[in-house]
Every structure is written in structure tokens, then in C-alpha cells.
Fold this sequence. Notes:
Blueprint: H1 2-20, E1 39-43, E2 53-65, E3 74-77, H2 84-103, H3 107-114, E4 125-129, E5 137-145, E6 148-153, E7 170-179, E8 189-194, E9 197-201, E10 207-215, E11 229-234, H4 240-246, E12 263-269, E13 277-284, E14 287-292, E15 304-309
Parallel strand pairs: 1-2, 2-7, 8-10
Antiparallel strand pairs: 2-5, 3-4, 3-6, 5-13, 6-7, 8-9, 10-13, 11-12, 11-14, 14-15
Helix pairs in contact: 2-3
The protein binds copper (II) ion.
Residues 71, 154, 156, 164, 169 line the site of copper (II) ion.
Amino acid sequence: MKLKLFILVVTISIFFNCKNEAKSEAESDPIVENTSKVIDIVTLSMEFQMPDTIPSGWNTFKYNNKANETHFFRFVKLPEGITVENFINEADPVFEEGMDLINAGKPEEGFAAFGKMPEWFSNAIPSGGSGLIAPKSSAISTLYLEPGLHSVECYVKMPNGKFHSTMGMVKEVYVSDAKSDTEPPKATNTIDIKEDGFHISGDLKKGEHIFQVNVINQKLHENFATSDVHLVRLEDIADINILEAWMVWYDPKGFITPVPNGVKFLGGYNDDNEGSTGYFQVDLKPGKYAFIAEVPNARDKGLLKEFEVKD
Length: 311
Ligand SMILES: [Cu+2]
């Protein structure tokens, strides 16, 4: 029951924030010099190397995951007066305590522990990011960011069950009032996220694609995540049902590395508000693929769609 209450509180809060997000009209911030370049994000092991300050508006990110683990990056806009320190000191320990209890075979106590989340947590706003990206791979994402202090984070779990965010994979980034002059790219395909799942349009033939993801309807799922999209390449040995179960972080075997056999993550578009749009680019080679959201029971929700790219 506590979990349901927590979800309700978070849902109401996200709805409230969506409706009250005001665009800042403040003057340009001179800290940002070049506002049109691609912003590099690099991970060597368990960190984000990227600028501390970036412009608001449209930004294109190249995430270069040089690590041996699958990672992602996502932006979360922090509530007024909250910094990444608050996340590390007040929210991470709650996730850790809950997850440790679930891992110890005590799911009820674990979910009850998540109810101890600080009040401000429900006012943090997911603001888009990449999908999961395989080791030694890179991905390009274009996101629209509102000004303000953000946390950039990854919460895949290490083989010992610890979240990457508690191992240093969280970085404070200030999105300045200065607006980037980056334009969103011209999409080859669209993915509309609606109440009943993904609606994909455009030819899925081999070659370069730019996917435009439109969050038409958003909702909070049982794992506190909202509907997002991850692109995976599936080798013949891959089992789609194992992948579907793996996408749930609160499962002791979920969202933990190594990823399921025969699965390679190629990026995507992370949690964002209803009404938002973002882009990701990918070069599709012939083979089997799926779009999947980081939610429980993705297939039943229309948030798991398989497709094949012909030679
Ligand atoms: Cu990570």
C-alpha cells in the first residue's frame, strides 16, 4: 500500500510540475561560449565526463561509453534549493536500503523502505536522456532542456546489485538561461508514446536513421519510471522474455550487468514529460531489433515492439 501511495504522490507531483513549468526569459548567461557544438559525454568506467554548464533549449549530445559496462545518461531537473549532494545523501541511501532488502528476499520491507524518500524527491523532473548504450559504443541524442540545476545519472546495477548512481555515476550540471542555437535534426522516423504504447512510423530499412520520439501520453509505472524507449539489437541467442524481465530495476536480476545474452543496447530516449520531444540517431544494420521501455510488463503495455531490418 505504501508503494501505491508513493506512486500516487509522485504522479500528482509530476502532473503539477508539467503544468507549471514556466520557460525562463532571463538574460543570456555569458559562461557558455560556443552554443552550437555537439556536447561530448564520456564514461571511462563509472563517471560522467562532460561540461558543468551547458545552454538551455536544444542540445545534441554524443555519449561515448568507453566502459566495459552498459550505461545511459539521463537529465533530471532538480527542485528549487536541491543539489546533487541532496540526492547522494538523502535519496540514494533510500534506494540502496530498499534494494538491499529486496535482494535479501524481503520485497515488502524493501518497497516500504522506498516510502522513506525525502519529500523533495517527487518534485524532481525527468528531462530526457539517452537509452541504454552497450560497452565501447556511442550514441547521439538531441534533447530540449529547461534552465536550472540538473542531475545527470545512470542507475544500471553492478553485478553486486549496487546502483551505478551510488558508485559515482551522478553529476551536477547547470543548464543556463543562455539558449543554444542548435536546431533539432530532421527525423527519418517517429515514435509516438501513447496511452497504449509505441506508435512507430517511417521505413525501418538498413542505414542511418534519426528517430523523433514524441511523448504524447506519459504515465508513472510500478517501478517509478515513466514510459521511455530503448533500442536493442537481438542476436539469435537472445530471449525477448528474459530481456523484458531484465528491464525492471527492482527485480534482483533486473537492470544489472551483464545484460541478457545476445542483447546489445543502441541508445534511445529516456524518461521525459508528457508533451516533450527528443531525438536519437542510429545506423541500422540488417538483423533483429526491438524497441522496449524500462517498465514492468512492457509487452502488455504496448511498450515492446520487435522488428527486422532486411539486407
Ligand atoms: Cu551506468
